[in-house]
Design brief:
This protein is an alpha+beta fold. The protein is built from 11 helices and 31 strands. β7 and β8 form a beta hairpin.
């Protein structure tokens, strides 16, 4: 009651001083709305930056498109009642029938050739039944997939523009980007068309993300959200320097960290997809890993740079050039190697047949090796070391009966594994295989592999698969395996090849 009385008093006080004449509306034009003071002239630097942003958008936005996708998915209804003519509905006996449902999705893209080629992300258009591209003026076209490279999350699609003249985006040089440089992200966040955000380049060469892809991302703080995928990241010259691809987020929305695929990498992939239909990558034929702090300190390697050679494939380009296990690659063609992922990505970005120079540290001395890159996925690679990569990104090692996959936080939680471990997930084990005979089962994690008393960390499924596939039939290997919170060693003997 006291609160009500106080509120009533306030209302009464608010009406004091008003009369009936004060409710009359003013004569139109008698007021000067919004006639407040303003700066005589905005700061020149700020105005120039604002004008630069506007000029970039005016130049680039006509080439940015909206990608709409549709696919049919199976829906398994639960407990659908079947009505009868008399009595109560009864539950259907047996499993309910599958139903089909249309799932709508989409993202962004940008025109890279006036004949209708559009660059976007692989995850935007992969496995879609229908793809449509909409220009900024809302003109829509049916689109077809030219090619997809899931490893780098790059795809090329094509429309038939007919007599429509398409605006084409200009490529920049992502190798010349500098940390702190202004960039703009264009696209369709949450499908709000023709959106633009601004930020700076926060970091370069980001490859810490888990997975088997070729990540060498540009990190920015330009706001990017679902729907921005496939849109361009541009510099203040209006040049595309990256393809907006992903965000780091705990909520599913933007939290200040977004990643873009460097346009230099994307351009090379797009050319392969358009001209050849497939992407070819360079191959050295080495299993490599990062230089740990103790080794870097002992060998006086600054910044833990370099990549340690763990194994060299027989008959590979690296072996032909004289590379040996224990070498540390410090430079690739005159440019420092910052880690194993850096070396792997840069080699993969080159074409087979490219001649490169490896500057390596061996037995305390630095030396140079000249290597002609082979082709990733070639017969030499497949027969010597490489595990068989499946369509789902897992790797098969038939000699041991293992199917290997990425061990991320989700997989650790699902299989009761400690969050602190690093390794590779055992996805499946073949019946009657050497792995099954020794008690290895799906859901375990392989942390390390030991051959000839040389212990190697299981850095990724592809690395582990290559090492295991290099063990000849009848050869043995020791694995450090995690089962829930228990860690133990298991010895395996490679089985015979089955052809």
């Amino acid at each position: 009651m006291r609160l009500q009385a106080t509120f009533s008093c306030i209302l009464l006080l608010g009406t004091v001083g008003w009369s009936a004449s004060d409710t009359a509306r003013p004569v139109r034009g008698s007021l000067h709305l919004g006639d407040g003071p303003e700066l005589a002239k905005p700061p020149a630097v700020a105005q120039e930056l604002s004008d630069a942003f506007a000029a970039v958008v005016q130049q680039v936005q006509p080439a940015v498109v909206t990608v709409y996708t549709t696919r049919t998915i199976d829906v398994q209804p639960q407990g659908i009642p079947i009505p009868f003519l008399f009595g109560f509905p009864q539950e259907q006996e047996g499993p309910p029938p599958e139903q089909k449902r249309k799932e709508m999705g989409g993202g962004s893209g940008f025109v890279i050739d006036s004949r209708g080629y559009v660059l976007t992300n692989a995850h935007v258009v992969k496995d879609q039944d229908e793809i449509k591209v909409e220009l900024p003026d809302r003109t829509r076209f049916d689109a077809k997939v030219v090619g997809i490279d899931e490893k780098a999350d790059v795809a090329v699609i094509r429309i038939d523009p007919g007599k429509t003249k398409l605006a084409v985006a200009a490529f920049g040089d992502s190798d010349k980007l500098r940390i702190g440089e202004w960039v703009l992200a264009l696209g369709n966040p949450y499908m709000f068309r023709n959106s633009v955000t601004a930020g700076i380049v926060s970091a370069l060469g980001r490859n810490e993300m888990e997975g088997e892809g070729y990540s060498d991302y540009i990190q920015t703080d330009a706001a990017v959200n679902p729907g921005n995928s496939g849109g361009p990241l541009v510099n203040l010259r209006g040049e595309v320097v990256g393809i907006n691809s992903s965000i780091w987020s705990r909520s599913g929305g933007y939290q200040g960290i977004s990643f873009a695929i460097p346009i230099d990498m994307a351009k090379r992939i797009a050319e392969d997809l358009i001209y050849d239909g497939v992407v070819t990558r360079g191959w050295l034929g080495m299993v490599i890993e990062d230089v740990d702090p103790e080794l870097a300190d002992a060998l006086r390697i600054p910044g833990r740079n370099g990549a340690k050679v763990v194994q060299v494939a027989p008959g590979s380009p690296a072996m032909t050039a004289g590379a040996k296990a224990g070498d540390i690659v410090l430079e690739l063609s005159g440019k420092p190697v910052t880690g194993s992922a850096d070396l792997r990505n840069r080699v993969a970005a080159m074409r087979p047949g490219t001649k490169v120079d490896l500057h390596v540290l061996r037995d305390g001395k630095e030396t140079d090796l000249s290597v002609t890159l082979g082709k990733l996925g070639s017969t030499t690679e497949d027969s010597s070391m490489a595990g068989l990569e499946g369509p789902d990104g897992t790797y098969l090692v038939p000699r041991f009966g293992l199917k290997l996959g990425v061990l991320g936080d989700k997989e650790k939680a699902a299989n009761g594994l400690p969050a602190s471990i690093r390794g590779v997930l055992v996805v499946d084990v073949a019946q009657g295989s050497p792995a099954q005979e020794k008690g290895i089962r799906a859901g375990m994690a392989i942390l390390e592999i030991d051959t000839d008393r040389n212990s190697i960390i299981a850095a990724s499924p592809s690395v582990l698969a290559k090492i295991l596939a290099g063990i000849p039939s009848g050869g043995t290997v020791a694995l450090k395996v995690a089962d829930h919170d228990q860690i133990h060693l298991v010895g395996l003997r490679a089985g015979e090849d089955k052809r």
